[in-house]
């Protein structure tokens, strides 16, 4: 999102957070209703353009949302109206913002009942389990398969071993990829969890498991670099010949031997 959209999203989030805190276990229901609105926007270009058009009066758009969501929870109607009153740099940004609000609502339920750390761990384990499953990963965002079929595949993968919040998130990411690969969506959710826990998340790829002292030392280095606690999610990849590949958000620090060899080849070829 560009500056205007980021500012609009921040304003709506700030007003929605107290609502989520008060909603408790019902917060995930609010999230799923927001997902339904996102689906409506994604399926109707004309609706998306109208609600995202800054030249149309905000109150007129809010009235349209109220009619669309006549059977929805009043708290969902209120946040949706708040969102359409804002200015967005692009039509797609409104849908992205509502999706983020939906995921935040689902996560707020876990935060309320003290299971947010467990959800974070379950989503990371799901990501790691999919690492060697290329065809499964492809199926989970392939538009050739119905959304419900993709969501059912997630249920089979989880096999009842995940919390309800994790299942809601994992199913939603498969049901409506919205142009993103499945694991990329899970990564976005991990970032949202980190924000709610006031932490950064670093995905560390290593050829071997890191020892506890190595993890502690790396966490300390990253804490100094980013000025906040850093959650380490370590993936063991035997194809990494040495060193580490560290990704924090969109920033990648790649010190693997494989990367250095590739760089040497590029230099020779140049």
TrEMBL record:
Keywords: ATP synthesis, Cell membrane, CF(1), Hydrogen ion transport, Ion transport, Membrane, Transport. The keyword Transport applies. It holds the Pfam family OSCP. Coiled coil: none annotated. GO terms for molecular function: proton-transporting ATP synthase activity, rotational mechanism. It is a peripheral membrane protein. One of its GO terms (cellular component) is proton-transporting ATP synthase complex. Its main location: membrane. It is found in: Cell membrane; Membrane. Belongs to the ATPase delta chain family. F(1)F(0) ATP synthase produces ATP from ADP in the presence of a proton or sodium gradient. F-type ATPases consist of two structural domains, F(1) containing the extramembraneous catalytic core and F(0) containing the membrane proton channel, linked together by a central stalk and a peripheral stalk. During catalysis, ATP synthesis in the catalytic domain of F(1) is coupled via a rotary mechanism of the central stalk subunits to proton translocation. This protein is part of the stalk that links CF(0) to CF(1). It either transmits conformational changes from CF(0) to CF(1) or is implicated in proton conduction. This is ATP synthase subunit delta. It comes from Cellulomonas uda. The lineage of its organism: Bacteria, Bacillati, Actinomycetota, Actinomycetes, Micrococcales.
């Amino acid at each position: 999102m560009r500056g205007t959209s980021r500012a609009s999203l921040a304003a709506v989030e700030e007003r929605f957070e107290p609502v989520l805190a008060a909603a408790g276990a019902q917060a995930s229901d609010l999230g799923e209703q927001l997902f339904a609105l996102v689906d409506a926007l994604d399926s109707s270009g004309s609706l998306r353009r109208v609600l995202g058009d800054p030249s149309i009066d905000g109150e007129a758009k809010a009235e349209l949302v109220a009619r669309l969501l006549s059977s929805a929870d009043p708290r969902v109607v209120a946040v949706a109206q708040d969102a359409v009153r804002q200015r967005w740099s692009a039509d797609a940004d409104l849908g992205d913002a509502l999706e983020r609000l939906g995921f935040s609502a689902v996560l707020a339920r876990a935060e309320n009942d003290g299971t947010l750390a467990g959800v974070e761990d379950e989503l990371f384990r799901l990501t790691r389990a999919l690492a060697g499953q290329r065809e499964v990963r492809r199926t989970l965002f392939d538009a050739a398969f119905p959304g419900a079929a993709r969501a059912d595949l997630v249920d089979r993968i989880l096999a009842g071993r995940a919390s309800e919040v994790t299942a809601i998130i994992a199913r939603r990411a498969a049901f409506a990829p919205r142009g993103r690969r499945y694991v990329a969506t899970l990564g976005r959710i991990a970032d949202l969890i980190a924000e709610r826990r006031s932490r950064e998340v670093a995905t560390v790829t290593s050829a071997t498991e890191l020892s506890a002292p190595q993890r502690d030392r790396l966490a300390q280095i990253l804490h100094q670099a980013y000025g906040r606690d850093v959650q380490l999610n370590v993936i063991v990849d035997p194809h990494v010949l040495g060193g580490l590949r560290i990704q924090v958000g969109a920033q990648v620090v790649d010190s693997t031997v494989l990367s250095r060899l590739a760089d040497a080849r590029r230099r020779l070829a140049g």
